[in-house]
Amino acid sequence: MEAAVVNQTDSVTFLQTLETALRKRTAATAALGLIVANIENFDEVRSAFGHQRTLPLIASLAERLRAALGERDAVIRFGEAKFGILIIGLKNEGHLVLAANKILRETAHSIEDQALEPKLRIGATASLRRGDDPDVMLQQAETALLAARQENRDFLLYEAGQTGRLRNALGLAREIEGALEHGEISMFYQAKIAAADRRPVGAEALMRWSSAERGFVPPDVFVPVADETGQMEALTWYAINAACRQLSEWPDRWGPMSVAINATPSIVENTDLDELLTSAKGLWGVPSQQLTIEVTENALMRPEKCFAALNALRASGVCVAIDDFGTGYSSLSYFNSIPADELKIDKSFVMKMLEDDGYARVVKTIINLAHSFGLRVTAEGVEDERTADALAALECDFLQGYFFSRPLPQPEFIDWLEHYKA
Ligand code: G
Ligand code: MN
Predict the structure, then answer these.
(1) At residue 224, does pLDDT exceed 70?
(2) What domains does the chain contain, in order, with CATH numbers?
């Protein structure tokens, strides 16, 4: 089947092509796969390369798609940033998974020497029987694409039930909007302790959502949804302001305390955190030195986007900590110029360090690595005294974990600070 590769068509034309393929199918081509591949960062690509240079870029991406597929398969660009791909003569669903993976593999690094790559995300569906409706197939592939985006996956195959789950996630997104207004979101504080003398030095601020409808919603459920739906900025703004305001209410019996706020990689990349912090600092009279921003290691995977932002924070005196260190996929090559002041060792290593020598060595190595680059180290997930002692012996700087305190609401945290004995 011949199909225009680069020419942009609309979804009606694409549906017609799909319909023709469905109608023309013979025994040999009875099963069809439909893949919708979307260039997720199309706006970024276009603003980086300009309109003129974007067109040839899309053309070369389409070439690569073609090359990754069989001769009978069709690639059609429809809409601005989307490709519809028909896999003719599908053997089974596994075949579709292989095709999607091949597409992702073959289109990665499609422009040489460029830091910015068009990033594809794929939804797919299979039609193994005659009589399938092209409209329904396209809708299924698009649903799978949306679900993939929600779950932050490169590729998902349509499954019955996905529509329902998706509606649930979209419902969640709507509820997040109301959650802030209704005061259902609050900050909890977990103490951070100096390992050497066991004195509190500050706390990590952790967001909690107690929903009237759903009960307690854990952050690892609502944060990814908020991130996808553009609501993270409002939540981060809330977190920064609440933390700055509540910090000033803590007792001063342990000296000046610092507060750490978590920021997702997309917040670091797409918002002016420096500006948000500057206005909050001014509003609540908090010195920069008492503020820390925690970002996960994954943010460092795109150094061109986040290094400048993190260094701007550090230049203003805010401390930057790399969270969950050891669980990401970043490379050690950036260590020389790492835009951070602190590493936080992920609790999965700390919690097992006493019973497993391998984990103990990982912890020790991270501490030494950090120190040799002038970074301080916090161990998270300290659940007992022996672990605290072992970490102090390894010269870990700060400790955090249930042994000292769980994350607590503001009044209880104040109470904890007043009664804690070092
Ligand atoms: O990704 P980050 O490290 O910011 O996540 C902190 C999370 O870890 C919080 O949700 C907090 O409740 C949890 N946590 C903190 N201390 C401990 C601990 O000692 N043990 C366990 N199991 N979880 C902890
Ligand atoms: Mn954290």
Answers:
(1) yes
(2) 8-160 (3.30.70.270), 173-419 (3.20.20.450)
Amino acid at 139: Q
Task: Give the Cα-Cα-Cα angle 252, 256, 260 (nearest 5 degrees).
Answer: 115
Tokens standing for residue 354: 């006493």
Compute the distance from residue 320 Cα to the ligand 2 centre, in Å: 11
Pocket test for ligand 1, best of 187, 188, 206, 387 (most atoms within 8 A of CB): 206
Q: Is the CB of 298 under 6 A from ligand 1?
A: no
Tokens of 422: 């070092």
Residue 379 CA to residue 413 CA, distance in Å, equals 20
User: For 324-359, how does the pLDDT look when each residue is reduced to its tens digit (9 = 90+)?
Assistant: 998 876 677 788 889 999 999 999 999 999 999 999
Q: Whose CA is nearest to atom 6 of ligand 1?
A: 206
Cβ neighbour number for residue 2 with a 10 Å cutoff = 5
Determine whether the shortest distance from the Cβ of 206 to ligand 1 is under 6 A: yes
Measured from the Cβ of residue 275, the count of other Cβ atoms closer than 10 Å reads: 10
Ligand 1 atom with minimal separation from the 407 CA: 12
pTM, whole model, 2 decimals? 0.67
**Stretch 8-32: mean pLDDT:** 73
Ligand 1 atom nearest residue 218's Cα: 10
